[in-house]
Each structure stands twice: as structure tokens, then as C-alpha cells.
Design brief:
- The structure is a homodimer of 206-residue chains.
- Chain A is mainly alpha-helical and 206 residues long.
- Chain A has two domains: 1-49, Homeodomain-like (Arc Repressor Mutant, subunit A), CATH 1.10.10; 51-201, Tetracycline Repressor, domain 2 (Orthogonal Bundle), CATH 1.10.357.10.
- Chain A has helices at 2-27, 30-37, 41-47, 51-70, 80-97, 99-111, 113-124, 131-140, 149-165, 167-176, 185-201.
- In chain A, helix 1 (2-27) packs across helix 4.
- Chain A is globular, with a radius of gyration of 20 Å.
- Chain A starts with a helix and ends in a 5-residue tail after the last helix.
- At the A-B interface, helix 1, helix 6, helix 7, helix 9 and helix 10 of A face helix 1, helix 6, helix 7, helix 9 and helix 10 of B.
- The structure holds a DNA duplex (30 and 30 nucleotides).
DNA sequence: TCATGGTTTAACCAAATGGTTAACAAAAGT
DNA sequence: ACTTTTGTTAACCATTTGGTTAAACCATGA
């Protein structure tokens, strides 16, 4: 029975992820999730006591993967520029793989900041460096030019994440101008971000 | 009666805007809106037949103002660089004034792309130029260096809008790193965007 | 084989919620 | 004054929805 057990649990989580991602906490219906998973609604409550617990599971998982990817730059063996480049690369690839993740996080965080706060604290506890500390360090020891690290962080995240967050908007904008915006643009996007990083973090600014 | 009439309608719209912005279409409850407006729930249905109509009113209004601000660059008397700078400036100021607008649009668009599509078509019909066409023009006549206008558009919008969209996330990130992220950063943000525009649109690239 | 315990379901329940009705209030027209 | 129109409300209704219950199902070990 253990086999089947783990299986349905995973199936439920996948279904819940899909539905929650699409509809959010309020929009999602337990029945929809049950249908998606191909099981009875009561079974949802058997595995995850209620809607919030199920949501928490999905949400927590998403957050963990999110931060996991955000914290990869702590590798001190590489120059900071290199780390930031890899970091943004992985960030974009991560978002490309889970396109709804970003918007999902933002949706839910904006309507339930408290939960997010707690989860982050739990996850960040065991992480040593954040991009911010790394940047500050680099500025102080002269590896980076002097710049406002918070603004840079904001800019960088904007360039990486917004294209996925606002994909629906852009599809319409581009469409109505006769251009296409699809996955083939990821490479161009990455190039422009690399360009930005080099521009901002090179010691030889103009 | 005309006086009171217009008044309650406006009150309802304000209340609906507030609640819808915060909770979205699904999350918002008619009762909440009625309470916020200080009136009976039935009165909502008296003025706006049902929830969707009321939502449409709020949503349509938001969209119109949004696009109104996005289309100001059509002033041909100015050099393109100037126009783009003003454009991004106004964009940021607009979002600063309606911080939830962007996230609201994204939320609703992502769960109801069709409506958005229609509304945009209706609004864009009477607009002559979009940022894209202006950019393309500038590239062709040599006023701008050769660059991918779609990617630039994406980058620019990202830099402007994401800080507002992701404000909740950033507040937590910054907080857990001991930094502050509040309105005082708008100016820094604007500077960094100006810098980006100059970097990208100057003919004298490095 | 059959008792046991985890798994799954159909049927049900109570609360929430969008929407309606009928009656009342207040202004405007006559 | 009184009739009509417009604005407003309390009470109500039907449906949806999260959650529960009791019974059935089924693999496994005694």
C-alpha cells in the first residue's frame, strides 16, 4: 500500500500545483483539483486535511525551489561577475521551466504577505550569502565599481522575471504590433541581461 | 435625485476598485464591496447588474488609464530618446500612484486573456503610434543605433514595472538583509532607468 | 481464509455567496 | 395633494463550495 500511497499523494500535489498556479488560492476549487487528479474530492482531505494545508504544501515547495535558485551565487571560488552571470542565467532558465511560478508567487504573496514572510525566514536561515551581501562585499574590496547594490538587484531581477510575469500582456502588445513574443526570445533576453550585467559591473565604466 | 445618484455610483466604483485591486475578481466578495461603500448589497446589483459587470467597469477604467499613459510618446516634435525618457518617467510615476494597478492587471489578464484582448483592441484602435513603431522608425532612419526593439521594449518595461509588481517580494528580501525598500527609491530607480536608456539608445555605443 | 488497517468513494451537510424580491423612502413631476 | 419615478433596504433563495461521514475496497500478514 505504501506504493500507491506515495503515488496518489504526488498526483494530488501535481494537480494542485497546476490548478493553484492557474487560479490562485481563492480561484482554485477543490473539485477542480480532484478532477485534475482523477480522484474523489474526499481523498484530497484525506491526504491534506484542508484546502489551506494543501495550498501550503504547493506554495512551500514553490518557494523553496525559488530560493534554492536564488542562492546559488554563494560559490566563493568564482569572480563575482561570473557568479552574477550564472545566477541570472539560472534564474531565467528556472522561470522558463516554471513560467507561472513568478506570477503565482506574486499573486499569493501580495494577498498573504505574512505566510511568505515566515516561509522565507525558515528557508533563508541556513543560507549563508545573499546576492546583496556578495555585491556589498565586491564593492568594498574593489572587485566591483561603486554602485547602489539594492538598485542593481532590483534592476537585475526586473530584467529576468518581468518577461515571464507579464508574458500575457506582452503577447497582446506584440500581437497587436505584428511581432511575435515566444520562447525563441529567451536567448535574446539572456544576451541583453548579460550585456546589462557587464555594463553595470565592469570596472571600466564609460 | 441626480446628485445622490452619481454620488453612490462613484462611491461604489471606488469601493469596488479598492476591493478588486486587493483581492482580484474571485477573491473579492460583493458583501465586502458593499461594506466598503457603506451601502446595502442589493444596491450594487441595482447600479451594476452583477459582479462581472461591476468588475468590467473597474477593469476597463484601469486599462484605459494604463494605455493612455503608455501612448504618450507619439509626440513627433521631440527626438526619440527624449520621448522614451519621458515615457518611462511617466510610466513609473503612474505606477507609483497606482501601485496595485500593475499586479492587478497581470493577475486578471493571466486568468482572463480574452477580455484583455478585446479591451486593448478597442483602446488601441484610435492610437497612431506605439513605442515599437517609433523605435523601428528611429532605427531605420538612423536616429537610433541598431538594436532589437522588442527586446529593448521588454527590458524597459521590466525595469519600470517589476519593482511595483514585485514590491511585496522585495520588501521581504530587503528586510531580511537589513535594507529598506520604499518610495524613497523611486528616484534612484528612475536614474538607473535613464542610464539604461542612454546606454542603449545612444549612437555612441562602446 | 479472514481479520486488519490503510485507501477510496458516494452521499451528505453547513456555511458562504451571488443574486432576487417585495416593500419602503424620498425626490420630482403633475 | 398625489402619482410616478428613482434610490435603498431587509429578508429571502438557489447554487456553490469546503468539509464530513459511513460504508466499501483491497492488499497483506496471521
Amino acid at each position: 500500500m505504501k506504493l500507491k500511497d506515495q503515488n496518489t499523494e504526488a498526483i494530488i500535489l501535481d494537480a494542485a500545483k497546476l490548478i493553484f498556479m492557474e487560479k490562485g488560492l481563492y480561484g482554485a476549487r477543490m473539485q477542480d483539483i480532484a478532477n485534475q487528479a482523477g480522484i474523489n474530492k474526499a481523498l484530497l482531505h484525506y491526504y491534506f486535511r484542508n484546502k489551506e494545508r494543501l495550498f501550503d504544501e504547493v506554495f512551500g515547495g514553490a518557494l523553496e525551489r525559488y530560493f534554492q535558485n536564488m542562492e546559488i551565487i554563494s560559490d566563493e571560488s568564482l569572480p563575482i561577475m561570473e557568479r552574477v552571470l550564472t545566477y541570472s542565467n539560472r534564474f531565467v532558465h528556472f522561470l522558463a521551466e516554471y513560467p507561472q511560478m513568478s506570477i503565482f508567487l506574486i499573486k499569493e504573496i501580495s494577498s498573504n504577505q505574512a505566510l511568505f514572510h515566515l516561509k522565507v525566514k525558515g528557508i533563508k536561515k541556513d543560507k549563508k550569502y545573499s546576492l546583496l551581501t556578495v555585491l556589498n562585499e565586491g564593492i568594498q574590496n574593489g572587485e566591483l565599481p561603486s554602485l547602489d547594490p539594492v538598485v542593481f538587484l532590483m534592476n537585475l531581477h526586473s530584467l529576468c522575471a518581468y518577461p515571464f510575469v507579464a508574458a500575457p500582456i506582452f503577447q497582446v502588445i506584440c500581437q497587436s504590433s505584428g511581432v511575435q513574443w515566444d520562447d525563441s526570445n529567451h536567448e535574446k533576453l539572456l544576451n541583453s541581461i548579460s550585456d546589462f550585467i557587464h555594463y553595470k559591473l565592469s570596472k571600466t565604466r564609460i
